[in-house]
Amino acid sequence: MSIFSKLNFKDQAFRLREDAILDATTTVLASKGFDLMTMDDVANLIGISKPSLYKHFKSKEDLVGAAMIRLLDGATTQLESFPAEYTAKEKLSALLEWALRVRLDGGLPFLPSTSNAVREMLMRNLKYVGRVIKLNSQLEKLVIAAQKNGDLNNKLSPDVILFSYYARSCDPAVEYLQRFSKMDTNAIVENMLRVCFQGLED
User: Fold this and answer.
1) SS3 letters for 182-200?
2) pTM value > 0.70
3) Which ranges carry the HTH tetR-type domain (predicted)?
4) Taking a C-beta distance cutoff of 8 angstroms, is the pair 162, 102 a contact?
């Protein structure tokens, strides 16, 4: 039974509007960035009044926090949906593929690396921090397991591998390739995964 089947019509409408608001927030963030984004931008994009927007989110900071939490929840859901027979490395690769496709479709990277203000704001959001800790713990275990299996370099610190992995999810090369190369989405994802897991050697 889906979560929507448990809600009455009014609650369903509220939840659907909230999803639309977060979609619009993601779009505006991707195009304008946090500093230039305004509540008016989001309200105008989905055609609601700013007072209606404030019924859902009290501030721009709340909006961005909710958008990032939704992204992390999506990543956790993806990770938990992979077949049990996947190796640790296969799970890491499949999750990064999902994250890259989210970005190429106009979504946000895992890490808000381009803005100190966003990082500081998110670190004050306890729900966001909790989601980050959960996902990081899951991925760290996969990295260590992949190293033990010989699928990732066990001479490297797990932290180095893990944060290099995160960096791929926010690598600006993704946008440059999408905008300026003749590669389609599948080719971009395939090449980014190869660089991440195999390096630049033949």
Assistant:
1) CCCHHHHHHHHHHHHHHCC
2) yes
3) 15-75
4) no
Q: Using CA atoms, how far apart are residues 135 and 96, in angstroms rounded to an integer? A: 13
Cα–Cα distance for residue pair 97/34, rounded to 1 Å: 25
Separation between Cα atoms, residue 173 and residue 191, nearest integer Å: 11
26 contacts: CB under 8 Å, gap ≥ 6: 67, 106, 107, 108
- Give pLDDT tens digits for 30-57: 888 888 899 999 999 999 999 999 999 9
CA angle centred on 173, ends 132 and 144, rounded to 5°: 40
Residue carrying structure tokens 């990277």? 109
Q: CA angle 109-112-117, nearest 5°? A: 155
Using H for helix, E for strand and C for coil, what is the string for 66-106? HHHHHHHHHHHHHHHHCCCCCCHHHHHHHHHHHHHHHHHCC
Closest CA to 42 of 51, 53, 31, 34: 53
- Tokens describing residue 63: 């909006």
pLDDT in tens, 76-127: 999 999 999 999 999 999 999 999 999 999 887 766 655 677 788 888 999 9
